[in-house]
Amino acid sequence: MYEWLDREIVGHGRLPLLFFLLGFLAAFLFIRLSVRMIRAEVSWWPGNVKPGGHHVHHVVFGVVTMLMSGVALIAVYEDGTQTTGAVLATFFGIGAALVLDEFALIFYLQDVYWADEGRTSVDAVFVAIAVTGLLLLGLRPLELINVTDFRDSPDPWVRVAIALSSVINLLIAAVVLLKGKIWTGLLGLFVFPILLIGALRLSRPSAPWARWRYTSKPKRMLRALERERKWRRPVIRAKIFVQDFIAGTPSAVHVKEAAEHAKVAAEVELDHVVHAAPPPISLHPVASGTMDGLPGPGSST
């Protein structure tokens, strides 16, 4: 294990990235334990920070920690050692975890920590962990692009080819995202075949791509709806179960069993996301709620 760390992590200059991930995970797990202890009103656990009666959210401490450690990282960029970078990256990871744990508060500009919208924070944390893990394994985004070759090659045609491949990569990624496949697009930036498969496969029915391309193709839209409800249901249930296991069940739903809550919450989310995309705005809009016999938003399929 030590030899692998020395060869793959230290040898490739990824020690700061490893410590960023460790600091991020430790801070996220600790803060989630803390807020759940506070929510359970455990008497011996320190409560919220309320100077003068004003609740200071931990996103504030996260922003300050990220700012201080980020400036320090920039300051030692030229002559700092990898060990120094690892220490500062740890604090940056701690700050990032505190910020992303309240990402939903920033996104919605209101305190939705224990509401259903609060799951957005957990999604943001999962994305950060996934991206950092892929980078730590040596994968790089836009894998078809080699920046070193672009910089070192004197041949202008090589540079043109690299630039062209980068544009193609980004365009395919844009198609995948427009089809509503966020995780496929994210992983595809590191593994090109995944990106290509995501671009070729059917769009999610409520995505912009479906709105532009499927509103005049009822059969394709129906296929997208059927696939979404068939395959997304277990995925959404599993995701909500993991989110609630890690972050706690939102206050809006009171159930005794987490598995039962995941089932109920999944059906609610499906009602929101599994519907045909509305047609694009045109001079002759289709009647609201229906499209060639397809159910409108919120209808069951």
From TrEMBL:
The keyword Transmembrane applies. It comes from the Bacteria. Keywords: Membrane, Transmembrane, Transmembrane helix. The chain crosses the membrane at residues 15-35, 55-76, 88-109, 121-139, 160-178, 184-203. This is Probable conserved integral membrane protein. It comes from Rhodococcus wratislaviensis (Tsukamurella wratislaviensis). The lineage of its organism: Bacteria, Bacillati, Actinomycetota, Actinomycetes, Mycobacteriales.
